[in-house]
Please model this.
Amino acid sequence: YKRQPQDFILWLQQQGIAFVDVPEEEYLPMGCNVLAIAPRSALMLENLPGVKAGLEAAGCSVATYAGLEISRKGEGGPTCLTRPLQRI
Model:
């Protein structure tokens, strides 16, 4: 979120939205590609310990998957592997 316009960040924070930092070394291996599958429940690639720890510290349960073939080689993380869902 450090690369976002500060007025946008402030507006999000005023809406009650909190942020989890993505360590620089975890950005390129898709550390910011996390799929919310339910409130406070997320799916992400494994081997991103900083992001996972940050999400868990924020009260989220985190499931991970290897993704060596489908995500890492194709450069598509969990958000790219889904279709729109309707939450009821």
